[in-house]
Amino acid sequence: MSRTILITGASSGIGKACAEKFASSGDQLIICARRENRLARLAERLEKEYGTAVLPLSFDVREKEQVDRAIGTLAFHWRKIDVLINNAGLALGLSPIDEGDTLEWDQMINTNIKGLLYVSRAVIPLMKENGRGHIINIGSIAGVETYPMGNVYCATKHAVASLSKAMRIDLLKYGIKVSQVSPGATETEFSLVRFHGDREKAADVYSGFKPLGGSDVAEAVHFAANLPEHVNIDDLLLMPAAQASAKIIHKEEQSS
Length: 256
What we know:
Blueprint: E1 4-8, H1 13-24, E2 28-33, H2 36-50, E3 54-58, H3 64-72, E4 83-86, H4 102-130, E5 133-138, H5 151-171, E6 176-183, E7 186-187, H6 190-194, H7 199-205, E8 212-213, H8 214-225, E9 235-238
Parallel strand pairs: 1-2, 1-4, 2-3, 4-5, 5-6, 6-9, 7-8
Helix pairs in contact: 1-2, 1-8, 3-4, 4-5
């Protein structure tokens, strides 16, 4: 039976890959992001390729009023949300704590923590009405280990890990499962955003080894979402084979 999957940050990277994966399984999708044109194109393509219904919702997860309006005005047949994938997030900059850009700190905190909270707060009542649901939060190796100059970004992902545990406790009696999928190095727009569009710096992050791709993470998310009702993955740490910890990656020497 077709489910309804709501995905934030769906216009690129892991979110887009999740949309592809769930659409290919016949699930109907609510795809959310700020970039309206990208969402519209993705929705049109997924509907055409997989014959499933896709509802694009353009809003900023950092703005509570926008979140509440978008979720609160869903038509009746879209309100039975079976799976929420809290994927929207970003890293900005890589500098020591005393040199950090406070505007970038605010953006990471507002997106990675508050955005997850605002969307979850809007969707959970719908899941409670349905008597079931599954929230999958996209964490990070940065929420397991704090690495040099990762300070605020790492703090936000540690918060996601803690919130995932808190949600699991608070929502247990309502039949709502909560999982966290935490990837290591994943080649998406992540580093391009972190380095403010510097493609050379972004490419260097993933040179010399095979990182995860968005589709690898989507496979793990899809697996977690398709386990029997009585089974839940609490935390799943997903790493490239070449990565042993946040900052220990085996890179092959590049030939000149």
